[in-house]
Amino acid sequence: MEDYTAVKEEGNKYFNENKYGEAASCYTKALSLSSVTGNDKAVLLKNRAACFLKLDKHNEAIADCTSGIIEFSSIHRLVFVYSELGVSDTLSRDKKVW
Length: 98
Fold this sequence. Notes:
With 98 residues, the chain is mainly α. It has helices spanning 4-16, 20-32, 38-54, 58-67, 72-85, 88-95. It has one domain (4-95): Alpha Horseshoe (Serine Threonine Protein Phosphatase 5, Tetratricopeptide repeat), CATH 1.25.40.10.
């Protein structure tokens, strides 16, 4: 069984090289592995959301941040995405879920 940390590190390398599509693919692959759970899953979702934000895929970024909301920094990234979109009323509505 493949270890998700190696795939995550590959994604981090791509992200640091501004290869956001490749990084997102790595994070997606890592998320599909059965060895990833809990906080590690939230971190992968947060990382993939950062890729989606860089790729102007705001809906995908919102979905990943919402899925990984247990991780505090995901909340910050979600706020940033909504602010980029100028949609503060949506953020207020979504806060009810938290």
